[in-house]
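In response to reviewer comment 3 from the previous cycle, which asked for concrete evidence that the modeling workflow produces usable outputs, we include below a single protein chain processed end to end. The sequence was submitted unchanged, and the resulting structure tokens are shown without manual editing.
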Amino acid sequence: MTTKKGVWDLQQVRDKQLQDLWNYQVGQLWSLGRAYAGNLAQNGVVPNSPSHAGLSSPLQIGSDSTWSMSEHGDIKGNSNGDSNHAIKSDGTLWTWGVNEDGAFGIPSYSHNDKISSPVQVGSDTTWKNTIATSGGNSTRAAIKTDGTLWMWGMGEKGTLGLNQPHNTKLSSPTQVPGTTWASISTGDSRTAAIKTDNTLWMWGSGTYGELGQNDRTSRSSPVQIPGTTWDYVHVGYNAQIGIKSDGTMWAWGHNQQGALGQNQGPGQLTRVSSPVQIPGTTWKMADGGNLGYTLAVKTDGTMWGWGYNDKGVLGLNSTSDTGTPRYSSPTQIPGTTWSFVACDISKSNYALKTDGTLWSWGYQYHGQLGQNENNKNYSSPTQIPGSWSGVFGGRETGFLYKG
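The workflow returned the following structure tokens.
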């Protein structure tokens, strides 16, 4: 890449991507779906709410246009459905919803206090990215621009990475040792993070081999997964997905419903405690949903799904509520211009295309698919009106970015 300051080699480019030094867009944040205790950040009001309380079409959060998004299409925010965080372009961190187990990261709020409009977490202006659990508990993690990693909320089974007892609760961000953290993902009682040297580390529950250590031991401090070429990691409800710099994808953990993509039939599903490769060499990113399914995008713009297909979550124009409800190998979802996919923890999914259109499918009860209706599931991607730049999902909720 050539710049005004000269020429950077590929490693320098990658280093800057990992350090999040190119950042990127600012814009509006919108919400939709289940309305509960201020989780949609609509200041306690949900206009024209249907009988299933929620928003079935996106509504902007306030009038602020300074929310931040990364180059990859993911908003710098997170949700577990009832408590949420997002970062603004000035590096400030904001929260709203329900303060379950210290999830806000603000000590002055008590357990289960509610906020219906974003309030700032502390006074720091150096927050880089933030992520919540995909499994429904209140673990929170965020990385600052200096490469430090901070955790708060519920530390179930050591998921805070601070060598503390099971179920430790922290109401303020607390630093995990180290200063070279680059990216972070948390799941159901587990956390994974990549450092700037492309090493991958995990901690938390290892009951089913989720920590990739070739055992089933839980750990309350980071332990390294072998390898020094990790570029991407996602911690799901049952499966952990990692992508290396050569575009290969690897999976490990609980293989419920075929979520590890190992082409195993009924009765053959085995738990995996060390990373095993999923076929292909052009994988870009992945996300996973509750009850064991995975959605992933390749660099050629194709999108693939495997695992549990309840409510049509795999976007394959079919549902499998009876019989054998799973695909144990990656199966292509129609289309060749997909750029990013996000799952919430209630079997609702969102994906962006390169033309700025946003699509949704899967389970819907509170309007979270953005189709101006409720209680209707979709087994194929269906467009949400408008032009969008990013998305993240919560629990029957979606947060959309328009930049």
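Residues 98 and 114 are 5 Å apart (CA to CA). We consider this sufficient to address the reviewer's concern, and the full set will be provided in the supplementary archive.
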